[in-house]
Amino acid sequence: MPDDQSLQSLLEQAVAGDSDALTAVLFMNRDRLERLMSFQIPVSLRRRLDSEDLVQEACCRVTRHIGGFNPEDHQYFFAWLATIAQNVLKDAMRRHLGPAGSGGKIAFANGGDSSAMLLSEMVGDEQGSPSSQVAAGERIDHVRAAIETLPEKYREVLSLIYVKNMSAVAVSEQLNLTESAVYMRVARGKEMLRSMLGSQSNFFS
Prior knowledge:
By secondary structure, the chain is mainly alpha-helical. Helix content is 67%, strand content 0%.
């Protein structure tokens, strides 16, 4: 992984339209992103969804949105990239589990919805025994409480995406922001949550 200055330089080139620089930055982060997405695919969908395919789609979306990324925020690049990948996963989950075009919540066999599942993964729940699921519910409440302490612009986007289960596109329309700006606010908000939650969080690793 390049140092901060080298990463910022590559991102400046990528934002300016240099496809080779963008390819290099994505390649540097691809293995880490695949590991993260593999962890977040629901057990019930692991035969139907592949982390490599999700990452490939995320990279395609990054290509469309990289022009809105500020290279000075290079320290948030992976969190920004992960947010895009997580939106790809949510879209795939809707296709496989949700009513077509409903835009509503997705029901899972263990109860709950896609937002709760993602928040559960945020705090490292493995959806094991009933007792662990109760503990996970308590941790989800803790994460939601932590979100409420964030500055308004970060709290708003995280609540819409992870509590109300809205897509980044829908959030951008509601808040009159670019989709890239939504991704950036989510990335920064998640970094703040990671600092608050400490060892409880696997979601941001």
